[in-house]
Design goal:
Number of domains: 2
Distance between the termini: 61 Å
CATH architecture of the largest domain: 3-Layer(bba) Sandwich
Structural class: alpha/beta
Helix content: 25-40%
CATH class of the largest domain: Alpha Beta
Largest sheet: 8 strands, mixed
CATH topology of the largest domain: FAD/NAD(P)-binding domain
Radius of gyration: 23 Å
Amino acid sequence: MTRRQDQGGTATWTTEVLVIGGGFAGLEVGRALGRAGIPTMIVDRRNHHLFQPLLYQVATAALSAADVAEPVRKILRRYRSVQVILGEVEQIDATLCRARLGGGEVISYRHLVLAPGSGHSYFGHDDWAAHAPGLKTIEDARSIRSRLLVAFERAERCTDPEEKRRLLTFAIIGAGPTGVELAGSISELGRLTLAREFRTIDPASIRIMLIEAGPRILSGFPEEMADYARDRLARRGIEIRTKTPVEHIGPEQIRMAGQSIDVGLIIWAAGVRPSPLAAQVAETDRGGRAVVDARLLVPGFSNVFVLGDAAACPDAEGNPLPGLAQVAQQQGRHLGRALVAHIRDNRPLPEFRYRSRGNTAIIGRHAAVFDHHRFKLRGWIAWLAWALIHVYLLVGFQNRVLVSTQWLWRYLTEDRGARVIDGEVAEKAALQKGPSSDA
């Protein structure tokens, strides 16, 4: 890798492979190229790799942010040919093999690997984002955790029954794995952990609504497993509303099926939107994902690859693969090995074949579902399988030990120690007065 300045003073980097994104796919590509000593540059707007499948536990005070994040530089420090850049790519010219960063720097490359992940999709209602945060980043998780805990704190000192009822009403929009896991975890937080510490809150008064526009929850799972999850959630007092699209979201209110409900917190878990960078290098499908062939190549280019959530990659039957962590990880490993052979020995690029390790979702203590073709589990065994799979997928031995230890402690004590409210949110809550407070 080299760096120089042109006559206009613009810094220009040159590298063999440019990887945009430090998620599951980007890291696996970087590792493979690093082991082979191939000059590689990884650009990400954050300095850490985030294990998103456990982000909901940060949002519900079960884990701290450091437990699910690892610095990208630390992960790749043993590979001297890999350079990590903290920055955001704003523009890509795939014809000229150049990418421009937000600060004006330009990176020239021979091969481009685009794995920038995805963000939230509010289906044309972006104004809802201010009132219904999604869960994609550490900042999202911390914000949701603070707003959730503040709702309990305000309810503790509230004297107005109607306002107290609103503060203890939580709405989760979207009943996929993230929505189901959030609902179960909030239920455990309120009815097990916090119930022992608050004096004026009745755990039975906590209302959690799981709202889904589709016909059932966990649409990616077999119907009998979704029915099991629905039954277990209902036993935990969670209201499930299917075939109920949201019509409006306000600061303290949600409207659906013509009915308005006052709420203390709304969490968005209904949809994702691929990075807009995908549209700069390829045609996109209706969901905004770049259309690639089975080699993960963008048609019309021999050196541009798109992976992970940003790619509409076909499976063996020609259907686009789902946006799962295991898909991105397998794509990264496959392309990393393929690029090493292609760059070193000019070998042709092989097609990618996805091998599912199964889908899993946790409902709560001793309850989960696990689906792997004909191999289906539910209940305590699925719950244990979920834990083992997620610990295995965590990046870094230290994180695996820490998360395992904290899960064991939480299991034995039913306690959650990561209940820290951000200072700004806490100050706003302390200053709020009126009929909802004794202050």
